[in-house]
Amino acid sequence: MSDLIEVRGLTKSFGDQQVLKGVDFTVAAGTVTVLLGPSGSGKTTVLRSMNVLETPDAGLVRIGDAAIDFSSRPDRRAVKALRARSGMVFQAHNLFPHKTVLGNLIEGPVQVQKRPVDEAVADARALLEQVGLAGRQDAYPSQLSGGQQQRVGIARALALEPEVLLLDEPTSALDPELVGEVLAVIRDLAAQNWTLVIVTHEVRFAQHVADQVLFLDEGVIAERGGAEVLANPREERTRRFLARVL
Ligand code: ADP
Predict the structure, then answer these.
(1) Ligand 1: residues whose CB is within 6 Å?
(2) Which of 19, 39, 54 is the best mutation target for the ligand 1 pocket, counting ligand atoms within 8 Å of the beta carbon and taking the most?
(3) How far apart are CA 22 and CA 170, in angstroms?
């Protein structure tokens, strides 16, 4: 399997705090990578850097045939090209409150990608079915539960036809009873061979879906491996972290 994503030598400081100290990994197409680690270890910054929501100080990010070497200032066209390769799902879904579910789903495809409305609507309906919300297209976000809103958030990211889905703690803002339905949608995507990179504290979920686990600590990948790493960590700091969250 070829690598769809390549991240090399990623560094990032906020003020005098170096948050990423040289992060390297690759992701094969059709696989699930889970980023784990203590709060503040840099997981979100890695994910946001892949979508250029943060601009790294140095290092390379490649997704498919779009790449940026951040050692020089990236031009706007390169940023746009890299951004177009990934869809981002945030902790809070950020849906437009004044638009219906359907309106939220077709906004990007129609306004940004200039796709025909009827085509975007047909795709949006299929995506709603995929996330288990067929029939809710005319609802407003406030009429949906947090779990349903987050499922719309996932459908909205997919509507832009990205090559990769980046999910930043997609269940951490949800009431516990709503977590399962969102994880089930993510599990379905994994089964359909979507390429996913997920920041999550749901270690048991990670055990089920992860092809690759990256354990971040203080801005470096302290341990990596398959899902078995979670059961048998080699590094003391991974062990300590897992003992706390499991
Ligand atoms: P994690 O996702 O592992 O919790 P983050 O990547 O969110 O870690 O944050 C890593 C560190 O960078 C934290 O100390 C956080 O406070 C800091 N940080 C993140 N974003 C910013 C920002 N925009 N400005 C200043 N500091 C930030």
Answers:
(1) 14, 19, 37, 39-45
(2) 19
(3) 25
- Report the Cα 211 to chain-centroid distance in Å: 15
Q: Output the CA 30–ligand 1 centroid distance in Å.
A: 28
Write the single-letter amino acid at 72: S
User: Which residue from 23, 44, 216, 218 has its CB within 8 A of the most atoms of ligand 1, so it is best to mutate?
Assistant: 44
Read off the pLDDT of residues 128-183 as tens digits, 9 standing for 90 and up: 999 999 999 999 999 999 999 999 999 999 999 999 999 999 999 999 999 999 99
Q: Which of 151, 10, 7 is nearest to 85 (CA)?
A: 7
User: What is the dihedral sign for C-alpha 74, 79, 85, 86?
Assistant: positive
pLDDT of 226: 96
* Cα distance between residue 123 and residue 163, in whole Å: 16
Q: What is the ipTM of this complex?
A: 0.97
Coil/strand/helix, residue 92 = coil
pTM of the predicted structure, to 2 decimals = 0.95
